[in-house]
Amino acid sequence: MREDDAMSVSHTLLGLLEPGPRHGYDLKRAYDEQFGQSKPLAYGQVYSTLSRLLRNGMVEVAGVEQGEGPERKRYTITDAGITDIETWLSTPESPEPYLQNTLYTKVVLALLSGRRAGDVLDAQRAEHLSLMRKLTRRKNEGDLADRLICDHALFHLEADLRWLELTTARLDELAKAVVHD
């Protein structure tokens, strides 16, 4: 897992703890309901993240309950955790232009190898359109959170499609530039 993924999960769990104490399984369920539609959070990741947050003073154990199975700890956010989540929420993310993305690399490699770069772009276009159809169905059937999440993804996919069309229109020019370099 990348560092920014771990930070996102940590901050998300802190945010979910802010309204009040919760057990690890409650945090997982809340995370999955709100943010994990396409990739639910693993229980192991919840507990390892909680351990790290506990070690770093961002959360503390609010109580331990005995049950039929292992002890169930309730976690609560600390003042340091609240400060951390406030800082994270108020700090904008850095935009990341995809200058060397995989698709561009595939197109250039197709041109360099004499393969049909248009086929690469056509296959990618079909994949984008398929995902856009799925997201549109989810958006139409979902609640407000689903609609907002799907709109974000659809806007990015539309931008990718515009790039695919532009690149397709410029394939001859790109082939000349790539093959003659």
Short précis:
It contains 8 helices and 3 strands.
What does this structure look like?
It comes from Amycolatopsis marina. This is Transcriptional regulator, PadR family. Residues 13-83 form the Transcription regulator PadR N-terminal domain. Pfam families: PadR. InterPro entries: Tscrpt_reg_PadR_N, WH-like_DNA-bd_sf, WH_DNA-bd_sf. This protein is mainly alpha-helical and 181 residues long. It has two domains: 3-90, Arc Repressor Mutant, subunit A; 102-179. 68% of the residues lie in helices and 8% in strands. It has eight helices and three strands, in the order αβααββααααα. It has helices spanning 3-17, 24-34, 43-55, 79-90, 102-113, 117-141, 144-169, 171-179; strands at residues 22-23, 59-65, 72-77. A three-stranded antiparallel sheet has the order 1-3-2. The longest helix is centred in the last third of the chain and has 26 residues, at 144-169.
Topology:
Layout: H1 3-17, E1 22-23, H2 24-34, H3 43-55, E2 59-65, E3 72-77, H4 79-90, H5 102-113, H6 117-141, H7 144-169, H8 171-179
Antiparallel strand pairs: 1-3, 2-3
Helix pairs in contact: 1-3, 1-4, 2-3, 5-6, 6-7
Protein name: Transcriptional regulator, PadR family
Domain Transcription regulator PadR N-terminal: 13-83
Organism: Amycolatopsis marina
Key descriptive features of the protein:
3 strands; Transcriptional regulator, PadR family; Arc Repressor Mutant, subunit A; mainly alpha; 8 helices; Tscrpt_reg_PadR_N; three-stranded antiparallel beta sheet; 2 domains; WH-like_DNA-bd_sf; single chain; 181 residues; WH_DNA-bd_sf; elongated
